[in-house]
Amino acid sequence: MAGSLKTYLQDPFLDRLWREIRQVGPLRSVSLDITHVCNLRCVGCYYFEEGMDSHQSPKDEAVFDDFIQREKARGTNFVTIVGGEPSLVLHRIKKIYDNFHTSVATNGIRKIPFKGLENLPIGVSVWGDHQTDKTLRGGDKVNVFQKALKNYRDDPRAFWYYTVAPGYAHELEHVVERCIENGNNVLFNYYSYSGEKGQGGALDFQQGFDNVRRAIDKMIERYPERILMTSYFNKVISTGRLFDEKWGYEVCTNLSTNNEINFERFQNGKPYNPHFRAYNADFSSTRRCCTGIFKDCDSCFDTWEHFSWVMINLKKHLATKQDFTNWLTTMYLFYLISRLVDVEAGLSLLPEIHRRVRQPEAVLDALS
Q1: Which residues pair with 84 in a beta bridge?
Q2: What are the phi and psi torsion angles at 77 (to 5°)?
Q3: Which residues sit opposite 289 in a β-bridge?
């Protein structure tokens, strides 16, 4: 293994990416529901579909402060802030930001201020064009996308976390154009309803994500300097395949290590993050994983979960230089999105990253 790795790193570009990641050091991460309250009710939102808001966030600020001190003592150095809607508790975002590397996901309705949070990575959600987003997230009343565009125009911290459903792949090009015209970069996610029966129709993940994958690959070819996802990573998530493995609970790596529901899984020999916990909004209890309590993991197409799946499986990517390049660029993009490496320099590397990771079918699809 070491010999192969040493050989691959003789490539100056790969060596640069490797060294920048190594300089950051190991990440010991948790996911935190910073509030149980939200100002939207998006169709099929995992958080409310599975009743995660039953764990209510304490009003007593001392409880939150104690959580921060416990996690610092445990060695946590990275917190992914979710909810609920984090922008409703700005003072708590600031406390996490001041104590950990962090990133936050928001619906974009309320702007997270720049002052004091200058290096905060902000993933701004969008699910489709203005009408689709208004229907699925704004209850046909609120133009969520328009509000978020205004709030985060030319904000260097913000990237669009664009969740695409199988039946809405045709909207992808126009939405990406709007996001880039707004001065932001784009990362993609894949819609899967968390309920047992699903939504059906255009939202049904069982249709597969072939059209979505092809549409994303076309955007990578068109905007290589703006898309925060490679064609390799796009294929891994949308197909649920990593070499000989199929995505599901048995290979998921972001599972709460202190939750007994996962203890049997940890015995199967598949790698997992030994530090990880997904904290509920009470700041003490944990659930099975980031996005589920009862959800069938086979229906999970969450980008962050799949980042971890690739990142923790370095050994599987050492057979060839291309495999290693696929792994390293995925790893680097996570660090870049999370602003753990120099952002301006990292963004300048995006076109070369995409050039090296192009999947043959992605190029053919982009030309068709």
Answers
A1: none
A2: -130, 0
A3: 255
Quote the tokens at residue 365. 């699809």
Work out whether the CA dihedral 86, 91, 97, 100 comes out positive or negative: negative
| CA dihedral angle for residue 357, residue 360, residue 362, residue 364, rounded to 10 degrees | 140
- CA-wise closest residue to 292 among 209, 197, 195, 207: 195
Q: 266 and 257 in contact (C-beta within 8 Å)?
A: yes
| Domain covering 27-301, topology | TIM Barrel (3.20.20)
pLDDT tens for 87-132 read 999 999 999 999 999 999 999 999 999 999 999 999 999 999 999 9
**What are φ and ψ of residue 53, in 5° steps?**
-75, -5
Tokens found for residue 121: 């990575």
For 34-90, what is each residue's pLDDT tens digit?
A: 999 999 999 988 888 889 999 999 999 999 999 999 999 999 999 999 999 999 999
| Both tokens assigned to 113 | 């201020």
Can you give the residue ranges of every domain in the chain?
Answer: 27-301
What is the Cβ-side half-sphere exposure of residue 251, based on CA atoms within 13 angstroms? 19
- The pLDDT of residue 1: 47
Alpha carbon separation from 236 to 35, 154, 218, 309 (Å, rounded)? 31, 31, 16, 10
pTM of the model: 0.94
- Strands, DSSP E only, in 199-357? 241-242, 245-246, 278-279
CA dihedral 256, 260, 266, 271 (to 10 degrees): 0
Q: Count the alpha carbons within 13 Å of 106 in the hemisphere toward its beta carbon.
A: 26
352: CB partners within 8 A, 6+ apart: 13
Please report the sign of the dihedral spanned by the C-alpha atoms of residue 248, residue 251, residue 256, residue 257. Answer: positive
Q: Is the dihedral of CA 306, 303, 91, 121 positive or negative?
A: positive
